[in-house]
Predict the structure.
Amino acid sequence: MIYVTSLFMLWGIAITMGDVLNKHFQEALHLSKAQSGLVQFSIFGAYFIMGIPAGLFMKRFGFKNGVLLGLSLFSIGAFLFIPAANAGSFTFFRVALFILGCGLSTLETVAHPFVASLGDQRTSDQRINFAQAFNAVGTMIGPALGAFILFGPEREGSVDLGAVKGLYMGIGIAIAAIALSFSFVKVPATIDFHADPHAGADAENKDLHPDKPLFAHKHFVWAVLAQLFNAAAQGGTWAFFINYGHEIMGFSSLTAGQFMVVFMGMMLLGRFVGTFLMRYIAPNKLLAIFALCNVLMCIVVAQGMGWVSFAALLLINFFFSIMFPTIFSLGMKNLGQKTKQAASFLSMGVVGAAFFPMLMGMVADKNIASAYYLPIICYLVIFVFAANFNRFKQ
């Protein structure tokens, strides 16, 4: 559990460090904002392409080997930053980012069902949310570490790629070391979904309709849809946070960036609070409540009412906190042998974050506050899934 939970933090660091690279590449490689946006497209595009192959690999070779594959691709992608920096080629960097993204996609595809399988199905939502709390820690470390190394005082105004090369060489070595240590961890080749023998069928992940194909399970199909819109809302909200602080609040880019650490801290707090509340409130009901809260927050943010709206923007990440892990966990309920395949499609939903920010950007070019009306659509889809989950699962 400790090893697998650490994986959640690692991909949180890697994904948010891409935001720092975005800005650095604009300066070092003389890219436009549209061109540098291909950094995120390369990473999240890999999620879409690698989701199914990762699930098939996990199904054939087991959880442990799936983790080792993900870490290996992660490390290889990081090491490829060295020749990319030497060549000064953005195309080469995108190849490196794509391979790194394939590693992250594999880790996400494997880690969620892995954590879910380490105990009673009825508490799998709590375990995944707890593990995802460390992903939130990673989203705070990534920008802080990247900004310190790439934009530190001693590097102010520098446009060379030496720091990028050194940073990702260190990451590659660290991930390779983690992969080596994980290879010595004793993990059963196949982990059954454990249950208390006296707890009843709800405790076990048994396929309630084994004769049905995967996409005939309504709760799974709705979970994939909800995850797509969830990732879309996250991508758009995060992408324009600094712009909102700068244009609506009058912050400098530095101050707005510092508030982004608080923004990510709200997600960390939300995951711990959400994990605790799930002991008393059914996960799907809590998800529905949080989705409605974010509809309200988006409406307030879109009004551009100074600190009131900015506080609502911070709270969006608090209520967003449990959405990705809870949708993932609910989507895998009672799928039995289809669980690993289901994890592949749920991971692919992250591709929503590659496209939705462009739609928000079209509105944001005219009015940054009004752009926050768009995620309301996403949260309403999540609410429908959560509110009707028990009916969908029948």
Notes: The mean pLDDT is 84.
